[in-house]
Amino acid sequence: MWQEFSDLWLYQAHQLIEQNKLIEYTQFSNNLYGTGIDAVHNVTKQGKVCILDIELEGVKAVKKTDLDVRFLFVKPPSLEILERRLRDRGTESEEAIQSRLEAAKKELAYADEKGSHDLIVVNDDLDVAYEQFRNFIVDGTIPDIK
Fold first, then answer.
1. Are 107 and 56 spatial neighbours (Cβ–Cβ below 8 Å)?
2. What does the pLDDT read at residue 68?
């Protein structure tokens, strides 16, 4: 049953891609992820903030649209700390950890490019990171980070 559902979802996802009905999509860790254009428009028409949790290629794809967007990057304090956090979870295979770390290296390099994101929050102090995240999303403010 699960395999049939999975195959159906992949077929439908590929149809959406072919019909240009996804703002962004990617395959990561053998899973296909994407964001529907209609879903984003439905949220914004209601006067709500649409938050997308997307990877690097998704960010680049969304930047090419005519959507009024702001980009926030939540950055780990270091790759070493990110690796420790992934391992401490105990939910990832070694292959998945390595894949995530390779993706993180690319994301960190992109985050260093001028204009890549409107705000970069370093996730080293949860309370501070949350406050910066909340203020950016709710109030639209960008903190003066030193």
1. yes
2. 83
**What pLDDT score was predicted for residue 9?**
62
Tell me the two tokens of residue 69: 């967007």
Complete DSSP assignment for 44-99: HHTTPPP-----HHHHHHHHTSS-----EEEE-S-HHHHHHHHHHHT-S-HHHHHH
- DSSP letter for 146, please: -
59 C-beta neighbours (distance < 10 Å), count = 19
**pTM of the predicted model as reported, rounded to 2 decimal places:** 0.77
Candidate CATH numbers 3.40.50.300, 3.40.50.920, 3.90.550.10, 3.30.365.10; the one for domain 70-146 = 3.40.50.300
Tens of pLDDT, residue by residue over 75-96, are 999 999 999 999 999 999 999 9
